[in-house]
Amino acid sequence: MYVLKALKKPWLLLPPKLAHDLSSWGLPLVTLFHRGGTPQWQPLSWKGLHFQNPLGIAGGVDKNAEHLNSWWHLGCGFIEVGTVTPLPQDPNPGKIVDRDLNLEAMWNKMGFPSAGADEVFYNLRLHSEDLKTPIFVNIGKNRQTANENASDDYLFLIEKFKAHADAFVVNISSPNTQGLRNLQGKEQLTQLLLPLLKKAQEIQKPLLVKLSPDMPEEQFVESVQTCQLLGVDGLVLTNTSLSRPTDCHFPNEGGLSGKPLKDLSKKALQLAVKSLGDKRKDMLIVSVGGIMTPEDVFERLQMGADLVQIYSALIFYGPQFFHDVARRYDGGQ
Description:
The protein is α/β, with parallel strands linked by helices. Helices cover 37% and strands 18% of the residues. It has 11 helices and 13 strands. The longest helix has 18 residues, at 186-203.
């Protein structure tokens, strides 16, 4: 089964790390065979931003904003770049990426590898006159920055990208930066977000928070409600997971994504929609995690997501995913 799937998608024949490293070179070539504009289906307007369609790439796919034109050709309705850190930093040491083709699962222990704010700023500025979709900038702290000083890193990035980001995504949920997820607790979350929200309001840019799928239900709901009470503009649900299927060979540390994340991500979406209720108003909800087929996209939208993002589907389904979803939508799903 592995070989049959891989023959249809030759990049799966490469070792995971090599395929990851070559993707920056391969993506522009792929767009030669899948070129097209941004298809319009289920368009959305929100806080002055217009989305021709609600399907985009998740943070982590284009960490340094190097391939914006390729994503537009492939049909993205919006693009989230990053996670960006103030200073450049390397990946965590050791093995950082793996995949399981039979489970349609990905594993990573990257830990916010980033070219740094200056490099990403330069890449975004190159396209400042030619933006075809909204751009979300996913921001994170450098690993050496203590949690009590984390707001300094996030504030620096908001100021740095205020001219080129349409919205900011505060990443406090990666399992690969030690202690980062502690910022999701009510008190820590409040202390972190208050200055960030003040800054975002000053520059009139929406601020979203990306949460983990691994929190106990009560804590997750508390975090969602805290974000709403503070005035956060939206949520990205969810990041990768420390959970593992019983037949999974991945290490215990590092984040799991792909098909095994589907149920956790759907549960987070359901909890958020239910707990917010009428208080949600124009709070944007972006669903990501375990979205592997066009049907998965439509399901998340029907469940109450405003926007949907993919990552692992680009590997296991292929780069034609965006246009296939648009065609399926036009054909009545």
